[in-house]
Amino acid sequence: MRFYVNNLGFAVLEVGRSKQVIADFLGSDIQAHSDNYNMRLFLSVCHSIRNHEMSEWEGTGNAHTVIIKLNDVEIYNEFTEDNIHITLNEFEWYLKQWERFITTGEEFTIESPFD
């Protein structure tokens, strides 16, 4: 997968079709602000779920609804109606890679440990 800024100046995650919902979620709901409230919110929710401080969390952003549970994270695109189920670990991994990209501004390519 590749993290880069496209010719229109937007942060992009380029992935295979099976992970496109994740890329769309990061680009449209998390976005590319270095002081990102949404990024902190999702990482905090993951931490709370992992520590059994809550059993489930659901929220809808710009284009996606996310349901986070200990054993499953569902990301649902409200426009295309595509969805994906991934593990909490994988969800956090993608968030942290996106955070790395938007805070450093450096484009990079990396292989997912979950494929």
How far do the termini sit from each other?
A: 11 Å
Oligomer: single chain
Largest sheet geometry: 4 strands, antiparallel
| Count of alpha and pi helical runs | 3
Helix content: 25-40%
List the secondary-structure elements in sequence, H or E.
EEHHEEEEHE
Cα-based radius of gyration, to the nearest Å: 13 Å
Query: How confident is the prediction overall: mean pLDDT?
Result: 95
The computed structural class is: alpha+beta
Strand order of the largest sheet: 3-4-5-6
Number of strands: 7
Overall form: globular
Q: How many structural domains are formed by the residues?
A: 1
Task: State the low-pLDDT regions, or none.
Answer: none
> Beta-strand percentage?
25-35%
Which keywords apply here?
single chain, 115 residues, alpha+beta, 4-stranded antiparallel beta sheet, globular
Task: Briefly say what this structure is.
The chain has 115 residues and is α+β, with helices and mostly antiparallel strands.
